[in-house]
Amino acid sequence: MLEFDHIARIRARCTTRSDVLLGIGDDAALLQVPANTQLVVATDTLNAGVHFPEATSPADIGWKALAVNLSDLAAMGATPAWCTLSLSMPEADAAWVDAFLDGFLELADAHRVALVGGDTTRGPLSVCVTAHGFVEAGSALLRSGARVGDEIWTSGTLGDAAGALVQLQAGSAVDPALRERLDRPTPRVALGRALRGIAGACIDISDGLLADLGHVCSASGLGAEIELAALPASAALRSAFDEESRRSLQATGGDDYELCFTAPETMRSDVERAAREAGVEVARVGRIVAGTGVVARRENGEPWTPPRRGYAHFA
Ligand code: ADP
Ligand code: MG
After folding, report:
1. Is it the case that residue 174 has pLDDT exceeding 70?
2. Where does substrate bind (predicted)?
3. Bridge partners of 47?
């Protein structure tokens, strides 16, 4: 099977949109950006063994490769529109590509995202996706928008994906609910959109809450205090781990793809309304303070030091 056959198979399965003037098939895509909107562009690569366990199914790899990019668009408050897919594979395996597309296109179709181009090469398994979305000019949510006194919120539950990874690496049985969160993260696109005009700063949690909130703090020139006991936990995580391990997964585990955002206390009911509209739970987990860095506290006010602070490549 040649590169061109793969591309033809991919093209045959893609749904398009009216703003795609030229999709797969020419030297480049030709896309119509709506008037008065800004284009929001995010790229993320998934490498086998680093960003997903080697044994992950091709459909789950496809889903996750797009999900992590839609999560970045969500964190900007953008509406996803288009994506490109750069696929490096060790063999020309049509069944693998078909299964990969099952997961990828399921999520793309759910968000009306058109696959408009890409690249197909031979090499170690690696998937690079670029996602494009729109925001009305000036309305993007930035990391730099936090203010002293703002409340810090997170969506969904934290630590589930990291919990699955711990179980997997220990060779023990992996809880299916946790595994689902590792393999099929849910990008919080509707929530990100609903938070425009409400949230000051926003980021998606990919490397662990403390690490990612640290980016908000540096970009905003401020510090943050987190209440460990307020971090949302799923029933599956609670039953699988003791309290101390669970808290460290919630505070520092990677791969959550939840949103962490800030808003003034006076906007509390607006945040809650936005979350209801988006159909996502949100929890108030801390406050932005003067200073630098993130401090997590136990119920008794004592600072808590995590065993590790989130995933870093080249560390
Ligand atoms: P070129 O040599 O000009 O880069 P390619 O043969 O790589 O052309 O690509 C031909 C067309 O197929 C282009 O429109 C490209 O965007 C698209 N394409 C290639 N690989 C993929 C892929 N994995 N997913 C989607 N579109 C792809
Ligand atoms: Mg090419």
Report:
1. yes
2. 51, 255, 311
3. 126
